[in-house]
């Protein structure tokens, strides 16, 4: 079993099933005791902002705010720095517990032995 799971979610409201799958896998992994790092990129970048996850709806899916809260509470949530810049999102704007970081940090997270990475 992997020591750490890194998930990069690129989808948001534009692809709700892919988005929900990524958040669900991250939350279930955290609940299972796995060290999780969830990266918000592309359209999922908006979920780093207060209230945005509550706007997301997908029938028969767990509420996105609950999934995000679980990962923020027991894992690491990172907003891609380029994605943030393209959307004029700064450190002051994001939810408590969400950091902004770039590709160098992502690569450093996925390179160690025992790390599994998923992209949605």
List keywords for this structure.
single chain; alpha/beta; five-stranded parallel sheet; 4 helices
Question: What do these coordinates show?
Answer:
The structure is a single chain. This protein is an alpha/beta fold and 120 residues long. The protein has a single domain, classed as Hypothetical Protein Ychn, Chain: A. It has four helices and five strands, in the order E-H-E-H-E-H-E-H-E. The protein has a five-stranded parallel beta sheet with strand order 4-3-2-1-5. Helix 1 crosses helix 2.
Question: Secondary structure elements and their pairing?
Answer:
Elements: E1 4-9, H1 16-31, E2 35-40, H2 64-74, E3 76-80, H3 81-86, E4 98-101, H4 103-110, E5 115-119
Parallel strand pairs: 1-2, 1-5, 2-3, 3-4
Helix pairs in contact: 1-2
């Amino acid at each position: 079993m992997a020591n750490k799971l890194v998930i990069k979610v690129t989808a948001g409201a534009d692809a709700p099933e892919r988005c929900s799958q990524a958040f669900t896998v991250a939350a279930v992994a955290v609940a299972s005791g796995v060290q999780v790092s969830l990266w918000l990129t592309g359209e999922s970048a908006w979920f780093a902002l207060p209230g945005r996850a509550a706007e997301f709806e997908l029938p028969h899916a767990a509420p996105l705010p609950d999934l995000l809260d679980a990962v923020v509470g027991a894992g690491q949530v990172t907003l891609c720095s380029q994605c943030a810049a393209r959307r004029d999102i700064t450190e002051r704007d994001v939810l408590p517990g969400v950091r902004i970081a770039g590709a160098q940090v992502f690569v450093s997270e996925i390179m160690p032995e025992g790390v599994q990475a998923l992209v949605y």
